[in-house]
Design goal:
- By secondary structure, the chain is of the alpha/beta class.
- The protein has a single domain, classed as LmbE-like (Rossmann fold, 3-Layer(aba) Sandwich).
- The chain is about 40% helix and about 20% strand.
- The protein has 7 helices and 9 strands; from the N terminus they run E-H-E-H-E-H-E-H-E-E-H-H-E-E-E-H.
- It has a 5-stranded parallel sheet, with helices on both faces.
Protein backbone atom coordinates (compact mmCIF):
# COMPACT_ATOMS: atom_id res chain seq x y z
CA UNK A 1 0.00 0.00 0.00
CA UNK A 2 1.38 3.40 -1.01
CA UNK A 3 2.20 5.93 1.70
CA UNK A 4 0.90 8.61 -0.66
CA UNK A 5 1.90 10.53 -3.76
CA UNK A 6 4.97 12.67 -4.38
CA UNK A 7 4.88 15.04 -7.37
CA UNK A 8 7.88 16.65 -9.05
CA UNK A 9 6.91 19.57 -11.29
CA UNK A 10 9.66 20.57 -13.71
CA UNK A 11 10.20 22.53 -16.90
CA UNK A 12 12.43 20.33 -19.07
CA UNK A 13 13.50 16.75 -19.67
CA UNK A 14 16.69 16.26 -17.59
CA UNK A 15 15.66 18.65 -14.77
CA UNK A 16 14.84 15.55 -12.76
CA UNK A 17 18.54 14.74 -12.34
CA UNK A 18 18.60 17.23 -9.47
CA UNK A 19 16.20 15.18 -7.32
CA UNK A 20 16.37 11.68 -8.77
CA UNK A 21 18.13 10.20 -5.74
CA UNK A 22 15.52 11.61 -3.38
CA UNK A 23 12.68 10.38 -5.58
CA UNK A 24 14.16 6.88 -5.63
CA UNK A 25 14.46 6.86 -1.84
CA UNK A 26 10.86 8.03 -1.53
CA UNK A 27 9.69 5.28 -3.86
CA UNK A 28 11.65 2.66 -1.90
CA UNK A 29 10.07 3.93 1.30
CA UNK A 30 6.61 3.30 -0.15
CA UNK A 31 5.51 6.51 -1.87
CA UNK A 32 4.20 6.68 -5.43
CA UNK A 33 6.32 9.13 -7.42
CA UNK A 34 5.09 11.30 -10.30
CA UNK A 35 7.04 13.41 -12.78
CA UNK A 36 4.96 16.33 -14.14
CA UNK A 37 6.97 17.47 -17.17
CA UNK A 38 5.69 20.81 -18.42
CA UNK A 39 7.57 20.94 -21.77
CA UNK A 40 9.25 18.37 -23.98
CA UNK A 41 12.37 20.51 -24.40
CA UNK A 42 11.48 21.40 -27.98
CA UNK A 43 14.21 24.05 -28.20
CA UNK A 44 16.96 21.97 -26.64
CA UNK A 45 18.68 21.01 -29.89
CA UNK A 46 18.79 21.45 -33.66
CA UNK A 47 17.44 18.02 -34.57
CA UNK A 48 13.94 18.22 -36.08
CA UNK A 49 12.78 15.44 -33.76
CA UNK A 50 14.44 16.80 -30.61
CA UNK A 51 11.16 16.83 -28.65
CA UNK A 52 10.67 13.13 -29.34
CA UNK A 53 14.31 12.38 -28.48
CA UNK A 54 14.12 14.23 -25.19
CA UNK A 55 10.75 12.68 -24.32
CA UNK A 56 12.27 9.21 -24.72
CA UNK A 57 15.24 10.24 -22.59
CA UNK A 58 12.86 11.29 -19.82
CA UNK A 59 10.94 8.05 -20.12
CA UNK A 60 14.17 6.10 -19.70
CA UNK A 61 15.10 8.12 -16.62
CA UNK A 62 11.66 7.64 -15.08
CA UNK A 63 11.92 3.89 -15.66
CA UNK A 64 15.06 3.85 -13.51
CA UNK A 65 13.55 6.10 -10.86
CA UNK A 66 10.22 4.27 -10.84
CA UNK A 67 8.27 7.47 -11.52
CA UNK A 68 4.98 7.89 -13.36
CA UNK A 69 5.60 10.38 -16.18
CA UNK A 70 2.98 12.86 -17.36
CA UNK A 71 3.56 15.34 -20.19
CA UNK A 72 1.81 18.73 -20.19
CA UNK A 73 3.06 19.76 -23.66
CA UNK A 74 3.81 23.42 -23.07
CA UNK A 75 6.34 25.14 -25.35
CA UNK A 76 9.97 25.11 -24.29
CA UNK A 77 11.28 28.65 -23.81
CA UNK A 78 7.75 30.05 -23.67
CA UNK A 79 6.54 28.65 -20.36
CA UNK A 80 4.34 30.95 -18.27
CA UNK A 81 2.21 30.46 -15.17
CA UNK A 82 -1.03 31.37 -16.94
CA UNK A 83 -4.47 30.35 -15.75
CA UNK A 84 -4.90 27.52 -18.25
CA UNK A 85 -1.81 25.49 -17.38
CA UNK A 86 -2.10 26.27 -13.67
CA UNK A 87 -5.69 25.01 -13.76
CA UNK A 88 -4.68 21.84 -15.59
CA UNK A 89 -1.93 21.09 -13.07
CA UNK A 90 -4.28 21.96 -10.19
CA UNK A 91 -6.82 19.41 -11.45
CA UNK A 92 -4.09 16.76 -11.57
CA UNK A 93 -2.98 17.61 -8.04
CA UNK A 94 -6.57 17.42 -6.78
CA UNK A 95 -6.75 13.84 -8.04
CA UNK A 96 -3.48 12.81 -6.42
CA UNK A 97 -3.63 14.84 -3.18
CA UNK A 98 0.16 14.55 -2.85
CA UNK A 99 1.98 14.41 0.44
CA UNK A 100 4.66 16.62 -1.09
CA UNK A 101 5.33 18.65 -4.23
CA UNK A 102 8.88 19.40 -5.35
CA UNK A 103 9.62 22.04 -7.97
CA UNK A 104 12.42 24.25 -9.24
CA UNK A 105 14.20 27.17 -7.61
CA UNK A 106 12.61 30.32 -9.10
CA UNK A 107 15.83 32.35 -9.43
CA UNK A 108 17.16 30.36 -12.39
CA UNK A 109 16.34 30.39 -16.11
CA UNK A 110 12.88 31.78 -17.01
CA UNK A 111 11.24 28.39 -17.64
CA UNK A 112 12.37 27.22 -14.19
CA UNK A 113 10.84 30.33 -12.63
CA UNK A 114 7.62 29.60 -14.52
CA UNK A 115 7.61 25.99 -13.29
CA UNK A 116 7.84 27.28 -9.72
CA UNK A 117 4.99 29.72 -10.40
CA UNK A 118 2.83 27.00 -11.91
CA UNK A 119 3.49 24.62 -9.02
CA UNK A 120 2.73 27.23 -6.37
CA UNK A 121 -0.36 28.63 -8.07
CA UNK A 122 -1.69 25.14 -8.83
CA UNK A 123 -1.35 24.12 -5.19
CA UNK A 124 -3.32 27.19 -4.17
CA UNK A 125 -5.99 26.62 -6.84
CA UNK A 126 -6.33 23.01 -5.70
CA UNK A 127 -6.69 24.17 -2.07
CA UNK A 128 -3.68 22.04 -1.11
CA UNK A 129 -1.28 24.77 -0.08
CA UNK A 130 -1.61 24.03 3.64
CA UNK A 131 -1.82 20.25 3.49
CA UNK A 132 0.94 19.47 0.98
CA UNK A 133 4.62 19.91 1.79
CA UNK A 134 6.40 22.12 -0.75
CA UNK A 135 10.09 21.98 -1.66
CA UNK A 136 12.37 23.70 -4.17
CA UNK A 137 15.49 22.26 -5.78
CA UNK A 138 18.13 23.69 -8.10
CA UNK A 139 18.45 22.25 -11.60
CA UNK A 140 20.64 25.02 -12.98
CA UNK A 141 24.42 24.90 -13.05
CA UNK A 142 24.66 28.47 -11.75
CA UNK A 143 22.65 27.68 -8.58
CA UNK A 144 22.61 31.40 -7.87
CA UNK A 145 21.78 32.15 -4.24
CA UNK A 146 20.52 28.58 -3.72
CA UNK A 147 21.36 27.64 -0.14
CA UNK A 148 19.64 24.42 0.97
CA UNK A 149 17.60 24.35 4.17
CA UNK A 150 17.46 20.57 4.10
CA UNK A 151 19.66 17.78 2.72
CA UNK A 152 18.82 14.21 1.75
CA UNK A 153 21.61 11.62 1.86
CA UNK A 154 21.43 9.87 -1.52
CA UNK A 155 24.60 7.81 -1.09
CA UNK A 156 22.64 4.50 -0.95
CA UNK A 157 21.28 5.09 -4.49
CA UNK A 158 24.22 6.92 -6.09
CA UNK A 159 24.86 4.18 -8.69
CA UNK A 160 21.25 4.50 -9.89
CA UNK A 161 21.64 8.29 -9.85
CA UNK A 162 24.55 7.89 -12.28
CA UNK A 163 22.32 5.77 -14.53
CA UNK A 164 19.67 8.51 -14.56
CA UNK A 165 22.22 11.18 -15.43
CA UNK A 166 23.43 9.02 -18.35
CA UNK A 167 19.92 9.02 -19.86
CA UNK A 168 20.37 12.44 -21.49
CA UNK A 169 23.01 12.20 -24.25
CA UNK A 170 21.23 14.87 -26.30
CA UNK A 171 21.87 17.42 -23.53
CA UNK A 172 24.91 16.40 -21.54
CA UNK A 173 28.26 17.04 -23.15
CA UNK A 174 31.16 14.69 -22.32
CA UNK A 175 32.09 15.36 -18.71
CA UNK A 176 28.79 17.06 -17.86
CA UNK A 177 27.44 13.94 -16.23
CA UNK A 178 30.50 13.92 -13.98
CA UNK A 179 29.65 17.47 -12.99
CA UNK A 180 26.04 16.52 -12.24
CA UNK A 181 27.12 13.75 -9.88
CA UNK A 182 29.89 15.98 -8.52
CA UNK A 183 27.34 18.59 -7.46
CA UNK A 184 25.76 15.94 -5.23
CA UNK A 185 29.19 15.28 -3.77
CA UNK A 186 29.47 18.99 -2.89
CA UNK A 187 26.14 18.83 -1.08
CA UNK A 188 27.33 15.64 0.58
CA UNK A 189 30.29 17.47 2.10
CA UNK A 190 27.91 20.09 3.44
CA UNK A 191 25.66 17.39 4.91
CA UNK A 192 28.49 15.19 6.26
CA UNK A 193 27.86 12.28 3.93
CA UNK A 194 29.20 11.12 0.57
CA UNK A 195 26.40 12.34 -1.71
CA UNK A 196 23.36 14.50 -1.00
CA UNK A 197 20.62 16.52 -2.68
CA UNK A 198 19.63 19.93 -1.34
CA UNK A 199 16.21 21.53 -0.94
CA UNK A 200 14.89 24.95 0.05
CA UNK A 201 11.69 25.42 2.02
CA UNK A 202 9.20 28.28 1.52
CA UNK A 203 7.95 28.03 5.11
CA UNK A 204 9.77 27.63 8.44
CA UNK A 205 10.12 24.12 9.83
CA UNK A 206 7.29 24.09 12.35
CA UNK A 207 4.61 21.59 13.29
CA UNK A 208 1.68 23.96 13.23
CA UNK A 209 1.07 27.22 11.37
CA UNK A 210 -2.15 29.08 12.09
CA UNK A 211 -3.70 25.78 13.27
CA UNK A 212 -3.20 24.18 9.87
CA UNK A 213 -0.92 21.17 9.73
CA UNK A 214 2.11 21.63 7.51
CA UNK A 215 4.89 19.73 9.28
CA UNK A 216 7.27 21.25 6.76
CA UNK A 217 10.15 18.95 5.96
CA UNK A 218 8.67 15.80 7.52
CA UNK A 219 8.50 13.77 4.30
CA UNK A 220 12.16 14.30 3.39
CA UNK A 221 13.49 14.31 6.93
CA UNK A 222 11.98 10.86 7.43
CA UNK A 223 14.14 9.37 4.67
Amino acid sequence: MSLGNIVYICAHPDDIYSVCGTLMLLRRKGYTVHDFLLTRGQKGGKQPDIAEIRSKEEQAACAIIGANLRFFDQMDGELFADRAICGTVADALKELKPAAVITLWPFEKPDHAAAFGIAHKALCMADLRWTTEFYMCSADGDQYRFRPDLYVNVTPVIEDVKKVVSCYPSQWKPGSSDWAVGSKKVYGRQAWCDYAEGFCLPLPQVNLRWDRRTEVGRVLLDL
